Amino acid sequence: MVTDVEWARIRRGLRFGQVFEGTVVNVPRPGAIGIFVDIGLSVGGFVDVLLLPERSEDWPAEGTVAEFEIWWADSRQQIRLKPSASRYLRHDFTDFVERFRPGWSSDVGHPRFGPG
Predict the structure, then answer these.
(1) Backbone angles phi, psi at 29, to 5 degrees
(2) Which tens digits make up the pLDDT trace of 23-37?
(3) How many domains does the chain fold into?
(4) Dist CA 56 CA 79 (whole Å)
């Protein structure tokens, strides 16, 4: 765990859509919560179940190396990610984004994160 000051410093350097190569390090409850990803920073990355395919068999397994994009980072010391590869995204990802994150395409490249 990093200090709040270190977390604030890390967050300042992050941008929506920024791509990291990461390794899936934990799939604690396939189909239930999501996956944890090591992207080489001192804080962990996490992909929420809502962004992943409905069938957990289609999720990247532990040890999978893939590209992940920054989806969100708020006061929690964790970087929310989305898989770059469409095969690791929910089948209706485009519709999902239109419903729940319609400004995603204009957010890419910007450091606008939640409070904290």
Answers:
(1) -140, 80
(2) 999 999 888 999 999
(3) 1
(4) 21
Please compute the mean of the pLDDT values over residues 76-96 and round it to a whole number. 95
CATH number at residue 21: 2.40.50.140
Contact of 108 with 17, CB cutoff 8 Å: yes
In this structure, the number of other CB atoms found within 10 A of the CB of residue 60 comes to 22
pTM: 0.91
- Rounded alpha-carbon distances, angstroms, from residue 29 to 6, 48, 62: 30, 12, 12
Q: Distance between CA 56 and CA 31 in Å, rounded?
A: 5
Q: Which tokens sit at 5?
A: 């000051």
Cβ(60)–Cβ(78) under 8 Å?
no
Please provide residue 4's backbone torsions phi and psi, each rounded to the nearest 5 degrees: -60, -35
